[in-house]
Every structure is written in structure tokens, then in C-alpha cells.
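Hey, quick one: can you model this chain's 3D structure?
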Amino acid sequence: MYTQHPKWPQNIQCAAMITVNLDAEYFWLQLDERAAHMPKTLSMGQYGMTRGLGRLLDILQSFSIKATFFVPGIVAEKYAGYMKDIVSAGHEIACHGYLHENLSLFDRAQQQERLKKAVAAIEKYSGVSPRGFRAPEGDLTLETLQIAHSLGMCYSSDLSDDDRPYFMPIDDAGTQMLQIPIQWANFDFPYLAFNYRPAFPTGQGRVAPYSSMLSNWKDEFTGHYTHHLCYVMQLDPQTIGNPGRSAILEEFLTFVKDKPGVWFATGSEMYDYCHQNESEILHR
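Sure thing. Here's the predicted structure for all 284 residues.
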């Protein structure tokens, strides 16, 4: 069991899923509501939309990679034009809550209301119904997944208990969602995000050296590649989208593209493959 890996399509060594958390300024607003009156703090998230997103879209296009964008409903509303840019480039839009709120703090009815509002906003401004879900603020309850499933979402990319996609039961009736696990080491935000007030990170660590971040990403991908696993990267345009950091992303994607047998999949493509080959996929 410890060496088991998914049976990928023919000649595929491993899967790679590039995901984008399009949080804009709403990460900071949920961290501290006083940020609404802090233009400097808000500007970091806004940079991700006004500059970082376009740069990231150009990079993905240059590598012929389709990514999955996890979008809060409020971001779809405020930045509607950008939703059209993402969809027209062939990327997937998935759900990331409504206000980037911590859904685990709300009861079932409140979660239902917020996720229903998020889905409606995504459908209105992107023209697509989200099939995937990632909890904002990094936390959720089992009820969260039940509600997401009831609203048409068939996969979640939230947990960190594996490095393979697997089907997980979400209720006593045996309803299942595909879980596509994530790892903090493959997320740009913990390395690169920094602010004095509201303090992030709380202990006020400094921005990580870019070379160390790149080295970690390469080591993690090499491990996933060697063991035929599913590498999931998380990016946020406000942290990866400036000129220097985007160059690091380009170097990393060149490293990955140089390896034979890598399948770049969106979340929906991963779900469709796992659903069609369910007997070959891990079940919990």
C-alpha cells in the first residue's frame, strides 16, 4: 500500500496539476476587517489582479498549460472582466467560497447560503458551473463538502493526507467526492507573502530566498515524478506575479517540461480520468 500509485494513461510517469488561488484583496480583508481602511495592505492583493494575473496567464500560455483557478464568488463579481480572460484562455474556474471566509466557523445553513451565492456569482460572470472546490482560509467541515457536492462540485482539492487522488466518502450514504491532495511546500504564498499589519505571517518571518523556494519545488516534483504520483502546485498572482518571482516560476515549469511523461491536468480532467478508471483509483 505504501508504494501504490495511480495507474496513469499510457506512457504517463506522473500527473501535475497547476492551480491558482485567485484571492485578490479578500485574503487580507478576511485576515483583519480593518484592512478595508488600509490601502497599502489591499494593494498587495489588487496587484495580483491588475498585474500578476496577466503575467501568469502569459506564462501558462507559453508553456501550453491549462490551470485550475479557484475563485471566490466576490472576486468573480468585482473582477468580472478577468474571468472572461481566464475562461477564453482555456483554463478551468472552480469555487473558493464567496468572501474567502473560513467556512468551518459557520453552521450548515450559513455555509449553504455562502456557497450557493459563490456558485451563482461564478456562473454569472464566467459562464461556467464550477465542478471543483477548494476551501478558502484552508479549513472546512465534512458538511462543507456535502454542500459543495449538492451544488454540482465533484472534486475537492483541500486535504493533505496523501499524494494521490482518491475517492472519499462524505456522508453515511456513501456519497463520494474525488479528493486531490495538496501540500504546503508546493504553495507560493507561505514562502512569499508578508505584511506588517495585519501581521502575516504572525511570527513575522521574512520572505523566503527565491532559490530555496525553487529548490524545494524541484525536489518535491522529482519525488512525485519518481514515485508516479500527482503533483499539485498552488499559486497566487499577488505573490508569484511580479517580474522576478514569475521568472522563478518559468524556470520551474521548464524543469518540469523537460521530463518525459508528465501529464498536466486540470481538476476536471483529473476527475474525469479517475471516474472513468475508478477501479484503479484509491478509495478511502
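One thing worth noting: The longest helix spans residues 39-62.
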